[in-house]
Design a protein that fits this description.
Elements lengths: L2 H28 L2 H17 L1 H6 L2 H24 L1
Length: 83
């Protein structure tokens, strides 16, 4: 199995283990189920792209930080549109 296959397996296992908890955290942050799913998708994409660094640390904490960063980025974009 190649490096990318192992990475995909590790990340898939991570999402299977922590996805529901991360979705609840995203829902808490947004107050909306659909917005939470979008936020989580963005955070998981960022986590996957940084997986070599994330898995070397604490992957769950990395993903939670990605949630907060994604939320901050989304709120800044909404603020710019409103201005």
């Amino acid at each position: 199995m190649g490096l990318l296959g192992r990475r995909d397996e590790e990340f898939t296992a991570f999402v299977a283990q922590h996805g529901d908890t991360l979705l609840r955290a995203a829902h808490f942050l947004t107050g909306d189920r659909w917005a939470a799913e979008d936020l989580l998708q963005l955070a998981l994409t960022r986590t996957y792209l940084a997986w070599p660094a994330a898995r070397g640390k604490i992957p769950y904490a990395y993903a939670r930080q990605a949630l907060l960063s994604a939320l901050h980025g989304c709120t800044e974009e909404v603020s710019r549109r409103a201005a």
